Amino acid sequence: MNLENQVNLTGRLAKENQLRSYTFNGENRNVLNNTLAIKSRNKDKPSNFINITIWGKTADYIFDNTQKGDKISVYGELTQNVWEDDKGQMHYELFVNVEEAKIIYSEKYQNNFANQNQAQQKSNPTNQQQEEDGEIQF
Fold this sequence. Notes:
By secondary structure, this protein is an alpha+beta fold. Helix content is 20%, strand content 48%. It is built from 2 helices and 7 strands, in the order ββββαββαβ. Strands 1-3-4-6-5 form a 5-stranded mixed beta barrel. β5 and β6 (90-105) form a beta hairpin. The model is unreliable at 127-132 (pLDDT under 50).
């Protein structure tokens, strides 16, 4: 990544995750699109809403373990799409192309983790590993 184009944001998912599959160079890859709601430092100003795009296994992981309202942190680069519509009007879209994502808080993840732990404990009662903190990096 270009050292001049690095973005690190923490916010809440503003909508339900949308996962799509693409074929790229003959290989299937998943892509997740969402929007991060990021509170302003100034309480009088509204939140900022930043579009994010996550690819591959990270997209699968975030899709499986988060939902609208969950808090995540992303690292990536700022990217701009530019296109012209049928009427000749130019459109500009700015988003973060995510390279790394970390779940800060997710009720869905905690429920998935608890269910996995219960299944492990039933199959192996001596195995009682617990997560030490709520941060999961992928």
